[in-house]
Each structure stands twice: as structure tokens, then as C-alpha cells.
Amino acid sequence: MTNNTYDSMYYSAFPHAVKLNSEQGVDKDGQKLLPPQILAPSAFWSEPIPSMQIPPIPQPPQLPPQLQEQLQQPMQPSLQENQLQQLLLLLQQQQKEIKEQKEQQQHQKAASSNVIFHTFIGAREIELLIREFNPSANSDLLATEWIKEIELLGKIYKWDPYLLMMYGTMRLGGVARMWYEYSLESIKNWEDFKRELINNFPRSIDSADILSKLIAKKRQSNETLEEYFHSIVKMGKRIKLPDETIKEYLIRGLEQSKDQIVLSSIGPCSLTEFLQHMQRLEMESRRN
Fold first, then answer.
1. Which of 197, 215, 222, 273 is the most exposed place for a label (fewest CB within 10 A)?
2. pLDDT tens figures, 209-259
3. Is the Cβ–Cβ distance between 150 and 164 less than 8 Å?
């Protein structure tokens, strides 16, 4: 592209621009040359403007193989990240130690409370808590029932198997005591004691005998209402009678037919509520 072509394009775009008279240093009207910033492009060069060529983008230099391997490896955490990880591990360790200390304190507290409690359990207290197992003197008490009573007491008072065995053997009498004395070598723990005791005294509940006692049971004149009630309930529960059946035996054993009629008209209720009805009825009978 020539200079004239550039000038033509320039003056077409800027018609008020002043044209340069290059030979005289004045414009076409003979006036003094204006500042160069308003001149046409040809005023600044006389040679044709060469076409621009964009040079190619240079490729990055090849790194040494050893350096490439280092760059491909995962970056090591910074010093700050290392410090945060160490702090986190320290906090976790402290929390673990605190938890272990609390568990140890709870265990020591439970152990100390057991020791304090056991110091108050003597022969007299054991005698009051646990019935004597002597089949010769009390044929109604079965080995299975007696074992169950001791284990229930153990749950209440938090006895371990060693205490269960110690307190249980303290309450053996008669032929049961004789059996235990010659069986010491074969009894090592509470489980052995239970198994051997039940095997050597295997009597079971005689349901027919208990039913005959319930049928024949009458409230005695010197028997309180509570004594009468609980004696029948105990026999009924022993052979797993329903509550409604136990109520029928309670009503049957009363002397006055009027009381039987009133209690028979009572709707469904628990045994405890039935006892309360019996107590109110007895109080009304005394007033009259």
C-alpha cells in the first residue's frame, strides 16, 4: 500500500485535517505548518509501511527428566498444614484420655459403692432377705423357685456371682446343707451350684395339690383380709392362674354371701384394685 493511499484514507476520515506541503514546510495556503499530531500519516515516513507479521509463540524449554519427576510427585504439605494436623491429633488424643478417665472414675465409683454396701450385709440381713432352703422342713419351697428369688435379689442389690453363691450357701439347711458339704469339690461357681441343686432336688410344682388347696381355702376368723388375699394370690400365681380365676377363688372363700354378690358384680380390674374393693366392703360391714 502506497503513502498516497494512506493519505487518502486519512483525509477521508478526518476532512478538517491540514495537508502537508513537504517541500516548503507550509500548508497548501502558505500558512505555517501545524503541530505534527494533526498531520497526515505520510508526514512521518516516506517509505511504504511493511506488512506486519506475528512471530510464532516460542515453545517452553524441555525440563530435565529428574526435574519432571519431582514436579509430578504430590506436593508436600506446607508447614502450616503440618501444624494443623499435629494439633488435630493432639486434640483427639486429649479427648480419648478424658473419656478413659471418666470411665475409670465411674468404674471406681461403682466398685466403691458396692464395697460400702456389702460391708452392711451380714448374716442377720441375709437371713431376713433369703428364705432357708430346707426341703425337709418346707416342702412347698422348690429349688427352682428359691434360685429365682436369690437372683432377683441379686439384681436389686447388684450382687455378682460370687456373692450369689456365698449368700445362697449360707441359707441352706437340713438335707440341703448335707448335700452341699459333700459336693464342694464339684461346685466351682454359681452356675454349678444352681445346676447341681436343681438336679439333686428336682421336685416340681404339684398343680393339682395347689388347686385342691385353693378350693378348700376359707377365710378364717383370726385371719386379716390382707393375709387371706395374699395367701390365695400367691398360690394362684405359683401355678400361673389368670387374675380372673384368682378373683373367683377369693370370692369363694368369703363367709358372707352378701360380700360374694357385691364382689362378683365388680367389672374388670387388677388384683390390687380388687383388694381395695374388698377393703371398702369390709369397712362398710363393720360400720353396719
1. 222
2. 889 999 999 999 899 999 999 999 999 998 889 999 999 999 999 988 888
3. yes
User: C-alpha angle with apex 55: 50 to 58, nearest 5 degrees?
Assistant: 165
Q: How many helices (H) and strands (E) does the chain have?
A: 13, 0
257: in domain: yes
What's CA 214's distance to the chain center, in Å? 48
pLDDT of residue 77: 54
Distance of CA 49 to the CA centre of its chain: 87
Domain final position from 143, 173, 200: 200
Residues 241, 264 within the same domain: yes
- Sequence-separated contacts (24+) of 36-40 with Cβ below 8 Å: 40/6, 40/7, 40/10, 40/11
Total domains in the chain come to 2
All cell numbers assigned to 178: 448335707
